Amino acid sequence: MGRPGLNRRQLLGTAGGLAVAGSLGFAALGTGADALASGADTRVRYWNLFSGGDGANMIAMLDAFREEHPGIDVKDSTLQWGNPFYTKLAMAAAGNRAPELGVMHMGRVAGFSPGRLLDPWDPDLLARYGVRKADYNPALWNRGVIDGKLYALPLDIHVQLCFYRKDVLKKAGLLGDDGLMIPVTSTDEWFDVLKKAKAVQKKGLQTIGLWTNDQNFQWWFFVAFYTQLGGKWFNADNTEVLFDTDKATQVLEFFRKHVTDGYVIPGAPTGEQFINGAPFTWEGNWSVPVFSGAKLDYGATPLPPVFGRQATHAESHSFVLPHQSGRGGATNEAAHELAAYIVTHALQWAAGGHIPAYTPTLATAAYKKLTPQNEYASAMYHQATEPKVWFAGSTGVLAQDLGPVVVSSTMGSAKPPAVAQTMRKHLVKLLASKNPMDGRTAAQGGTAT
Question: DSSP alpha helices (H): ranges in 70-186?
Fold first, then answer.
C-alpha cells in the first residue's frame, strides 16, 4: 500500500529489492531522476505515494522505461502516504504547480473535484500506447469515469485476503486434493474451519488475525461482507441513504463472534502471529512479499464468501493527470506514454502482491506461475468497493467516521444493533455534507458513470 516510514530508494539497494527487480526481467539500472537525463528533450514530473516494497518495484519499472525511452526524463518524487499526499497534490493542482503525472487511490477520485483539480485522460493517446478500455474489467474502468470522461487510469487492484498456513490446515484436514484451502460458503462452515484449525495449532497463538482494533482494516472487512449480503449505501442520485441496518448487524455480529469464541487475541500482532504459526490472518495483498520472504508454506484466497456471494474489499492505485492550466504538448503526451508503459508492464508490480488491472497480464504464463497471486486473481471480478462519493476512498472521511464505530462493536464496547444504527446516522450526515474541495454535496458532485 505504500505505507510511510521506509526509504524506497534504500530498499531497492538491498539484496532483496534487487532480487525482486531482476526476477521478472527488470534490470536495476539506477534511479537517475534528479538531473535531466543526457539527450532527453522532455521531462515528466511524477508524484506517487509508494514506499517500501511498492517503491522498489516502481523504481525498477521506471528505470526500465528510462532505458527504453532516453528522450523522456522522468523525475519521480515519493510523498508521504495518506492524507498528506492528497493535501499536497490538491494544493499543487490548485496553484498551477502540479506534476504531469500522479497516482491516487481510485476511491478518492470522485472527491478530488475532477475537471478542476484533475484533467481527463485522452483515450486516443492511451490507445496509441497500447491501453484501451477493452483491456480492463468494465466495472474497474468505469469507476474512473466521471461525467463521461476518464479521470483515473487503473494500475492495479489491491484486495483484502484470507492468508492460511498450509502446514497447519493439512493437519486439520482443511486442504483439498489440490493443496488449497477447502471452499467455505457459510458462516457455520467458516467457524467449523476455525474450530478444526484451533485444535491443531500451536499453543499461545490466535487462530486468526483480524486487526480487531484497527479502524481501516475493520472498515475494509465490513465493506466486503456487507457487499456479500447485497447491502446498498445510497440511491443512484446520492440523495437517499439505503444502508440496511439488519444486514450491517449480521456483519458486525459475525466479526464479534471471532472474539467471543476465542479465535482472536485482541491487539495481537497479526502478521507476526501468522509467521509464527497462527493458521489464518486477514491482510492486504501487500503482505505477500513479507510472508514469501519468511519462507512460509502458505496460500491466500479472497475473503471467504460466508454470506453466499463472493466479494472481497478492493481499492485501486490509479494514474491521474493533476490539473495544469496549460496541459498539452510533448509533456502531456509523455505522461500518457509513461502511464501506459507501466500499466502494460505490470508483471513487475504483481510481484508485490497487487493484481494488475491490465487484464492481458493476467493471461500470461509468467503471471499464472506467480504464487499465491494466481490463487486470488479472481478477485478482479468480484470487487467490493466503497460508494462512489466524495467522502469515500482510502484514508477518506467515510473510513475515518465509520471505521472506529465498527471497531467498537468488534471489541465489545458497543452492541452490533446499536452500532448499525450509528453507522446509518453517520451516512445521513455525510451525504448532506459538502466536499471541501468544491463545496458540493455527493448529489451535486457529478459522480455518474
Answer: 83-94, 123-128, 138-143, 166-171
